[in-house]
Design goal:
CATH architecture of the largest domain: Alpha-Beta Barrel
Strand order of the largest sheet: 2-3-4-5-6-8-9-10
Strand content: 15-25%
CATH superfamily of the largest domain: Alanine racemase
Bound molecules: pyridoxal-5'-phosphate
Number of helices: 12
CATH class of the largest domain: Alpha Beta
Largest sheet: 8 strands, parallel, barrel
Length: 385
């Protein structure tokens, strides 16, 4: 599909191809900024947006996000350090991981005052209770139904994420008494096209935060002031609604959400999906297969997960002329010594020759950041254009 590859193609033409690279991963800076602007415009001004690093962790991209004034959401201590290196001030970093060590918590407390840590469990909250310089959040599982693939659903009955809200009464008592609790956090899953489940999760946690605050006021404890509503929206190209529509639904269901709390978001895929294009030289061609340099090492979700990820392919000659017909069918084989390393089977394509290029568009999310070391291959080079 020409429209998806046109920006990457013009950039490659301007730099005379892949030069010495057998493959490249291009990241579209202007698309990133337009998505960030969309995020800024969709929500009220005061909302703090922390883009999820796990979705795209290329340092050049993180620096770009930081320089536009956005925050970052870290899923590990290593991602906290990536965010700091990118130039994000600690108060715009959220650290979510279900397994934070005491050492990591203390490093945040000492080195990064103002950072927010969302505890995943009451045991983790207990580890943080006496700390002074970090903002303390607690992730709740509202146990509402969000429509997405089971691998990406974090609000089910038995999710490993968050404190289940089933026993709300005893949770209310407990949270009414803990010395410090700055935020409640909810993220019901990823790749969600229908926002109803997302909004229901936020509403449940919003209502609960109000009730916890009544208890805290009675007990003379400081109030919960922030709600971190996570990310999770599927990109429009994958059937999702636009951010503006999501915010309208939030406003319709929870009219004073943005008035009563400081809101934090953690979108990932919605921002990055359209920004990435992968290009590989087609190294070999047989009757049934084309062999390229990126496979299950870069596209783990595509190959291993069973998630439905429809890829959009285009082929050019070695001189970057688009081959537009679809007269042949090829399976697309990656470079790994593993029979399952095939991206798609029997895809209608032009007749390919060794030295042509394969383009895969809309691969900005959950690709580079999931790189696998299988077969010890060198990471693909990321170029921002
Ligand atoms: C806690 C948390 N926040 C944000 C995200 C980003 O989700 P998405 O890329 O679906 O917006 C994830 C994804 O796994 C997550 O686990």
């Amino acid at each position: 599909m020409l429209s998806d590859t046109s920006a990457a193609l013009s950039f490659l033409r301007s730099r005379e191809g892949l030069q010495n690279e057998k493959h490249l991963y291009l990241f579209d800076r202007s698309m990133l900024h337009s998505k960030l602007q969309e995020l800024r415009d969709a929500f009220p001004k005061a909302v703090k947006h922390c883009v999820a690093i796990k979705t795209q962790n290329a340092p050049e991209v993180l620096t770009e996000i930081a320089s536009a004034g956005f925050g970052l959401e870290a899923a590990s201590m290593e991602e906290v350090e990536l965010a700091i290196h990118a130039g994000v001030p600690a108060h715009k970093i959220v650290f979510d991981s279900p397994v934070k060590t005491m050492e990591e918590i203390m490093r945040c407390e000492e080195a990064y005052p103002g950072i927010m840590l969302n505890a995943n469990s009451l045991a983790e909250l207990h580890r943080m209770k006496d700390l002074k310089s970090i903002a303390i959040g607690l992730r709740l599982n509202p146990q509402t139904q969000a429509t997405t693939h089971p691998l990406l659903q974090t609000s089910g009955r038995s999710s490993k994420f968050g404190v289940p809200m089933a026993d709300a009464a005893s949770l209310l008592t407990l949270l009414g008494e803990v010395p410090r609790l700055d935020a409640l956090h909810v993220h019901v899953g990823s790749s969600i096209a229908k926002v109803k489940g997302m909004v229901a999760g936020v509403k449940q946690v919003y209502d609960f935060a109000q009730r916890v605050n009544v208890e805290r006021r009675k007990n003379g404890r400081p109030m919960i002031t922030k709600l971190d509503i996570g990310g999770g929206l599927a990109p429009e190209k994958r059937g999702g609604v636009c951010l503006r529509e999501y915010v309208s639904s939030l406003n319709a269901e929870i009219p004073s959400l943005f008035k009563d709390f400081e809101i934090v978001t953690e979108f990932g895929q919605y921002i990055h999906y359209e920004c990435g294009t992968y290009i590989s030289r087609i190294e070999y061609v047989s009757e049934d297969f084309i062999y390229v340099h990126g496979g299950a090492d870069l596209f783990l979700r595509k190959v291993y997960s069973g998630l439905e990820l429809p890829f959009v392919y285009a082929v050019t000659t070695g001189q970057l002329e688009l081959k537009a017909d679809r007269r042949h069918r090829y399976s697309i084989a990656g470079p790994l010594c593993f029979e399952g390393d095939v991206l798609d089977r029997a895809v209608p394509m032009p007749v390919c020759e060794p030295g042509d290029y394969l383009f895969i568009s809309d691969v900005g999310a959950n690709t580079v950041s999931m790189w696998s070391g299988h077969c010890s291959r060198e990471r693909v080079k990321v170029v921002l254009f």
